[in-house]
């Protein structure tokens, strides 16, 4: 491959990854073409992108973009997968596919400059995602306020009645 062609491929990889900093790297070399094609179509439907790369060119593209941490993972057949809301969603999707397609192997990943091993990706897939964490935080914030409101408005106005009794007792 000529130097000009390599530079074009590196430039194309750079433009495709854009500002993305969360990746999962898989090995789909053993997956048959029909399964691989349907796998990629289903990823696209979920807003995820899969790009099979030549490792040396991908390393150069990542270096040009200032992305470090995938050097150890980019060995052997590699397909970069990125997209979705966050790395947890991406990890969940890739773990699901790795269970469904036995020939598909998760090699590792990268999030915020931190390299992830296969086990790290699997652990991330079992943790709550961004939306679930936000919902949990909001629930915890609203919990005490809603309990207080329910107590005040509760049957017989128990708190209001107690406050009224105390106020009347002090007057008398």
TrEMBL record:
The protein's name in its UniProt record: Large ribosomal subunit protein uL10
List the GO terms this entry assigns under cellular component, sorted alphabetically. ribonucleoprotein complex; ribosome
List, alphabetically, the Pfam families matched. Answer: Ribosomal_L10
CDD domains, per the entry = Ribosomal_L10 (cd05797)
Signal peptide (UniProt feature, chain positions) = none
Q: Does the keyword Iron apply?
A: no
**Keywords from the UniProt entry:** Ribonucleoprotein, Ribosomal protein
């Amino acid at each position: 491959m000529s130097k000009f062609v390599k530079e074009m491929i590196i430039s194309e990889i750079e433009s495709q990854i854009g500002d993305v900093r969360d990746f999962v790297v898989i090995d789909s070399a053993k997956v048959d073409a029909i399964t691989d094609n349907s796998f990629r179509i289903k990823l696209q439907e979920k807003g995820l992108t899969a790009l099979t790369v030549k490792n040396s060119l991908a390393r150069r593209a990542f270096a040009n973009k200032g992305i470090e941490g995938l050097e150890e993972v980019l060995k052997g057949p590699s397909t970069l997968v990125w997209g979705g809301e966050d790395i947890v969603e991406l990890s969940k999707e890739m773990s699901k596919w790795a269970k469904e397609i036995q020939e598909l192997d998760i090699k590792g990943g990268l999030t915020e400059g931190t390299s992830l091993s296969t086990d790290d990706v699997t652990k991330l897939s079992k943790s709550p995602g961004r939306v679930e964490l936000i919902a949990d935080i909001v629930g915890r914030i609203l919990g005490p306020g809603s309990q207080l409101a329910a107590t005040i408005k509760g049957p017989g106005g128990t708190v209001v009645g107690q406050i009224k009794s105390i106020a009347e007792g002090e007057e008398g």
